[in-house]
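thought: fold this chain, then report.
action: predict
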Amino acid sequence: MREIPAAIEPSERAVPRRSRYLRALLRDPLTLIAVLFLVALGLSALFAELVAPYDPIRQQLAMRNRPPLTPGLRGGVMHLLGTDELGRDLLSRLIFGGRVSLAVGLIGAAAAGVFGTALGLLAGYYRGRVDDVVMRLVDVMAALPTLLIALFFLFIIGGGFWNLVLVLAVVRWRIFARVARSMALSLREQTFILATRAVGATDGRIILRHLLPNMASPLIVLFTLEVAVLILAEAALSFLGFGIQPPASSWGLMIARGREYLTTAWWLVTLPGLAIFLTTLSLNLVAAWVRAVTDPVQRWRWLA
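observation:
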């Protein structure tokens, strides 16, 4: 009679990689809080029409510059974060402004990442003249002050959402190009790339199927950091009047409009500034955690 094998203990079973990452996240409470904050922020921005208690552009002049926890007019919904200089609900404007600021950061970083990664891959893989041209262009962009160039182009083409995204992508693609080029130079001499080339694989297949997947983790970390950088850049440009234009709302524009009332209505500047601070801090924490759990040298500390 055949002996029935003993049941495998849970600790001895192969743990799926997804579960290991989840356990690692749960063991890091600070990063977990950052992830939950970003998820809540993303959902509120995505479903802003359902979450916001008021229309963000609805004016109630009788409720101008009311502090947080002010009851609504005629028994309406409470203004949890107060109202602005035109009586508009500040919480609603923060939610809709978060949609604009996050969209600028995500779309701008994605556009810069695609363009910069493509050029960096080509420069690192082919080297020679392609590498020289791309890297000299990167050097020129690095020598120019980013904010000043952004202001110059926005002054010429005008502000607005898509113009702002375009300008930020143009001034930030060089970061992705440098990282992609350095990694491509290292990977192209690895044994598996030489073997793939020896069996007759085309350059396009090598780049897309072998180089790019091995560069994914550092590029994801860089993308997360760049989203935070572009959110800060959008806030600065909108504060200076060259970014998002009224009646649209963004966190930087809200700070610019509220600075005139800083001594009488502190919440108009403090709350949008706090939203920018918490968002960029959370993105940096998540990026640091992703870098740690994807690093072959130190990820065993997190995934053990």
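thought: worth noting. DSSP finds 13 helices and no strands in the chain.
final: tokens above.
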